[in-house]
Each structure stands twice: as C-alpha cells, then as structure tokens.
Design goal:
single chain; Alpha-D-Glucose-1,6-Bisphosphate, Chain A, domain 3; TATA-Binding Protein; 3 domains; 33% helix; binds 6-O-phosphono-alpha-D-glucopyranose; binds zinc ion
C-alpha cells in the first residue's frame, strides 16, 4: 500500500457556514483545497480507525472527482469501510439514514444544497456525525481551526475506483462498498408511512400528483417511491434524472425557482398535489391545486395531523422551529399540550433536541421539515407525510389548510430576500439595526407597537451551549414580527433576509394575499432598517 504524505499550506476561508463549506467549483478545484478540508476533518475527529464512514453527494459537477479523492484519503487515514452511493449519489436524508442504520462514525456529503451547480456553479462539503446529523458547532469549529494550520495530508496512491457497480472491493486496507442509493431510505419510509393507503389513493384514478426533482438528487428516489412502489403513473416525476448542472436551473424548491411545477399546479386543469425538492433532497415545497402551502404552515399541519401516520400514531413528544419560521406550529403545540422550541437557523440546532427525545417533528421556513427518523430535514418524507394525511382525510390540500386556519388562526407570512448585495453594506445595515435595538421598545408604527427587540440568542437546553447574534427580532404587541438576518449559505456577496409575520384569528380574513396583509409590516421593515437606501435595491430579488 502506498500512502503518500503531501505537504500543503492552509487556506484561510474554510469556515463551515450554516451547512458545511460551500464555494465556487473553481475554489474547490485549487490544488490541495479539497484535500486540506478533508484532512482537517480526519484530524479533528476521534475513534474512527477501522470504523465505517458513509460517502455520497447530490451528483453535481465535481461530485465524482471529489469522491475519488476522499476515498483515497479515507483509506490513507485508516477508515475501515466506506459505504458509497452508486454513481456517487446519496441524498442528504438518505446519508443520514444510512449513517444511523449501519452505526457509522459519520459521513461526508458533497453538496451545495440548493445552490446552482456546473463548472461555474457551487460545490460543498458537509460532515455529519454518528447520530446522522450535521456536525455541531464545536466540531465544525475544530475543523476550521485545524484548516488554518494544516501542513500535510495523507492520500493513497491508487487508480480511481468503479463507482457504478454494486459490491465490495479493497482500496488499500479499506473496504469500499458501493451501495444502492435508494434501498435503505425506501425501507425507512415504508416503516413510517401507510404505503397501502397512499397506493390506494394514487391508483384510484381520482388523485393526480406531480413531483419536480429539478434534475437533482431526488430523481432516483422519487421514481422508485412514487412510480414503482406506490403506483403513480410514469411521468409523475418530472426532471427526474440528476444532471451535473441541474439542467442549468437553480434547484431550490420555491415559487420562483420551481417554475415548471408552479406552472403545472397553477395552470389549466392542475393535478391535486405537487411537490418539489432541492439539490440534495432535504428541502420540499408543497402545492395543492392553485394553492401554495408555506413551509411554516406545512410544519403546523404535519404536527396537527401526525397521529394519522403509523410512525407517529402514539403522538409527538414536542416540536421545534427555527426562530424566523412562523409561529403557526406554536399554536398546534399549545393545543396538544407539548413543548415547542425556538432554535437558530440551521438544522444542526435540532440535533440535540431530537437525540434527547424532547421533540419528534421540526421544521424551518426555508422549506425544511423533518422528524426523529433521521437527523436531517427530509424532502420526500414530507411529501409522503402529506400524501398519507390526504389519503386518510380524503380532502384537497386547500381545504385541509383552510380548516387548519379555521381551528388555529392564520399566520400570514412572507420572506423577502435581497441577494448578492455588497457584504460591507449588508454588515453596515445589520450594525445600524443592532444600534437601534435598545431604542425600539414601546415605539409605535401606525397601529403596531413594539413589544420587544433583540438579537436572538439561543441556549441549547441539552448541552447548555450558547449561540449569539442569530438574527434581529422586532416583535409587536399584536403578535406580529419582523426578523432580519444575513444568510449563512450564500457564496457571493451577502444576502439579507427579512421575515414578516402577522397573526389573524378571524376566518373571514383568511383570504388575503400575504403581501397585501403584510404591507404595513413590509413598510415598517424598510423604515427601520433603511433597506432600500442602504442596499441601493428597490425591491427584493426573491419573495417567498
Ligand atoms: C440550509 C440549512 C437550513 C437553513 C437554510 C437557510 O438549508 O440546512 O437549516 O435553514 O440553509 O440558511 P440561510 O443561512 O441561507 O438562511
Ligand atoms: Zn438542501
């Protein structure tokens, strides 16, 4: 076995963001860049010698090449076995599932999630720990510290391996096992949901659905689940072949980027149900006939109806949402008498709550929903959850949502993004907002009076760790909120996100366009932060 130790010098920009390190492909392709980061992972973790690791990615450009490098580095660093998805394909939720099922010490996921791919697009590396979830901050911080001083890495000198044939072979002393990308995940889904009931609905001839995989990783999973296993007709899954550049699209399931699906569900004679997922398969968007379900409402609906699904028939222990996610689920939790936790943005903050059994379901406004079945958010799980509920209730999506609002009130919600703004300007805007925090309480804007204002800080109830500066909140006495934060997932300039929410208990007022019903809050948000003046942008680039 020929293990090479290669001298290197650190790159100083390998700080993991909300979800791993994401950079342009051109950055990752610099000599030693990927290797430095991977070696920093191995140097920062313990007890992996001879143990099992999971490896896969969303199929984007550079996926295959990076997998070859990582396999050779894993072999050189003493990993016992790597289970790698066939063709290098493993969705983020499937990776989490496989880590847990086979007691792996961790996994490496190659993805920049919903960011565009291709030679000019983004690439990313995430490290997940043995619980199947994103590495907690203390681990990512250690990896970053190591990356700043790293001076060598280890790699096996060996020819590239065949990633396309299932089976086991040796790479140095390590076993490489090429696994079916879908099988373990499909089995897990079958253990949670009532497949018979869903199949009955999908083959009844009375229910039509459409899934948009956006040329990204969920294609093979969606084909296997919905068309082969659950009986939906061929063609139900659109854009179902993963492409290295996602067909030139932006694989983010929202009303702007999932336009193919939106055109179908809002067009002539639309199907009953539509859903899309992102690059690595952890996000989801749910649509009914000419009807959009906000991710925050989706979480609330899943929580309210969880006992209809076999996997949650005994009830849920608690729920959690990220701070900027609407408070719709809080109302469901209150009525169920269970705890509702408010965490910072980033799925990793749910991990401890799930591990400790404090919560069963969790979700984020950024089109993420999930449960204790794995430790990542899970796009197709959310789709199956909705289908299971619809199959039991025999109701259209819109009616289900309206009845939910009728019972719990409606949280009008919208997010306004200002993308690719100059980083200095964005930081200045946030700094100015921070200065205003102590002065806002009691201030009146039209009918709304500020009840509190702060920069969100979270103390993890399980390990006591504190995460500060997680977004500026302005809460009003009527329950409405404005939240500002800078995205932690972008790669160019900064993205300002403004989250707007108001609560409407009166069913006769549940029919408004959210932009209309939130219009005064939108104006207040601009007035307080001087968004237009400081960004030089007249309107948001994306509204969801
Ligand atoms: C990723 C994370 C999510 C997070 C989202 C938005 O998808 O997994 O947990 O909510 O990014 O992050 P951003 O920092 O861009 O708002
Ligand atoms: Zn994703």
């Amino acid at each position: 076995m020929n293990i090479k130790t290669v001298a290197t010098t650190p790159f100083l920009d390998q700080k993991p963001g909300t979800s791993g390190v994401r950079k342009l492909v051109s950055v990752f392709k610099q000599p030693h860049y990927l290797e430095n980061f991977i070696q920093s992972i191995f140097d920062s973790i313990e007890d992996y010698q001879g143990q099992t690791m999971i490896l896969g990615g969303d199929g984007r450009y550079y996926n295959r090449q990076a997998i070859q490098t990582i396999l050779k580095m894993a072999a050189a660093n003493g990993v016992g076995r790597v289970k790698v998805g066939r063709g290098g394909i493993l969705s983020t939720p499937a990776t989490s599932c496989v880590i847990r099922k086979y007691n792996a010490f961790g996994g490496i996921i190659l993805s920049a999630s919903h960011n565009p791919g291709g030679p000019d697009g983004d690439f990313g590396v995430k490290y997940n720990t043995s619980n199947g979830g994103p590495a907690p901050e203390k681990v990512t911080a250690a990896i970053f510290e190591r990356s700043k001083v790293i001076d060598k890495y280890k790699i096996l000198e060996a020819p590239d391996v065949d990633l396309d044939t299932l089976g086991e072979f040796k790479l140095g002393d390590m076993v490489v096992e090429v696994i079916d990308s879908v099988q373990d995940y499909e089995q897990l889904m079958e253990s949670i949901f009532d497949f018979d009931k869903i199949r009955e609905m999908l083959t009844s001839g009375k229910f039509r659905m459409c899934i948009d995989s956006m040329h990204a990783v969920t294609g093979p999973y969606a084909h296997a689940l919905f068309e082969q296993r659950l009986g939906a007709p061929a063609g139900t899954v659109k854009n179902g072949t993963p492409l290295e550049d996602f067909g030139g699209g932006h694989p983010d399931p929202n009303l702007v980027y999932a336009h193919d699906l939106v055109e179908i569900l809002f067009g002539e004679n639309p199907p009953d149900f539509g859903a899309a997922s992102d690059g690595d398969g952890d996000r989801n968007m749910i649509l009914g006939r000419k009807f959009f379900v906000t991710p925050s409402d989706s979480l609330a609906v899943l929580a309210a109806n969880a006992t209809l699904v076999p996997g949650y028939k005994d009830g849920i222990a608690g729920v959690a949402r990220s701070m900027p996610t609407s408070q719709a689920v809080d109302r469901v939790a209150a009525s169920l008498g269970i705890d509702c936790y408010e965490t910072p943005t980033g799925w990793k903050f749910f991990g401890n709550l799930l591990d400790a059994g404090k919560i069963t379901l969790c979700g984020e406004e950024s089109f993420g929903t999930g449960s204790n079945h794995i430790r990542e958010k899970d796009g197709l799980w959310a789709v199956l959850f909705w289908l299971n509920i619809l199959a039991v209730k025999q109701q259209p999506v819109e009616q289900l949502m309206r009845e939910h609002w009728h019972s719990f009130g409606r949280n009008y919600y919208s997010r306004h993004d200002y993308e690719a703004i100059d980083s200095d300007r964005a930081n200045q805007l946030i700094a100015k907002l921070r200065e205003q925090i102590p002065t806002l309480k009691g201030k009146k804007f039209g009918d709304r009076e500020v009840e509190y204002s702060d920069d969100f800080s979270y103390t993890d109830p399980v390990d006591g760790s504190v995460s500060k500066n997680q977004g500026i909140r302005i809460g009003f006495t009527d329950g409405s909120r404005i939240v500002y934060r800078l995205s932690g997932t972008g790669t160019q300039g900064a993205t300002l996100r403004i989250y707007l929410e108001s609560y409407e208990p009166d069913p006769s007022k549940h029919d408004l366009d959210p932009q209309q019903s939130l219009a005064d809050l939108i104006a207040i948000a601009d007035e307080v932060a001087q968004v237009r003046a400081l960004t030089g942008m007249e309107k948001p680039t994306v509204i969801t």
